[in-house]
Design a protein that fits this description.
133 residues, alpha+beta, Phosphatidylethanolamine-binding Protein, four-stranded antiparallel sheet, globular, PEBP
Length: 133
């Protein structure tokens, strides 16, 4: 049962990352695990829309970890300046390194969480959370 659930979740991640073109626009392969990202006023759900008000404060983020391993957590805007013109590349909204057990508060923050304030008229943008061992 547990293995079936993991296979199902990986399938959801794969479809979402490919449908939204995160693969190949940002990364070459689909991550093996789904991150749980929760804001006080909304939860990230593989491509759902959240308002700037909902994402104003730093979210909690959890992912599967290994004992003794350290992780890097990044939040990126991959549509700079907008979804159809990505000529400016990516923008780093948050970066923490040496994070143990998905406990971001115990990692080393290289870039504090920066809330999202897209300029008027740019349309929807893709914001991606990634965790790497």
């Amino acid at each position: 049962m547990f293995t079936n659930m993991l296979t199902y979740l990986f399938g959801l991640v794969m479809v979402a990352f490919r449908t939204q073109h995160v693969v190949p626009d940002l990364i070459d392969t689909v991550p093996p695990n789904l991150l749980q990202v929760k804001y006080p006023n909304g939860t990230v759900m593989l491509g759902n829309e959240l308002t700037p008000t909902q994402v104003q404060n730093q979210p909690t983020v959890h992912w599967p970890t290994e004992v003794g391993a350290l992780y890097t957590l990044a939040m990126l805007d991959i549509d700079v300046p907008n979804h159809t013109d990505r000529s400016d590349g990516n923008f780093k909204h948050w970066l923490s390194v040496n994070v143990p057990h998905s406990n971001v508060q115990f990692g080393y923050t290289l870039a504090n969480y920066m809330s999202i304030h897209p300029p008027k008229g740019v349309g929807l943008k893709r914001y991606v959370f990634l965790a790497y061992k």
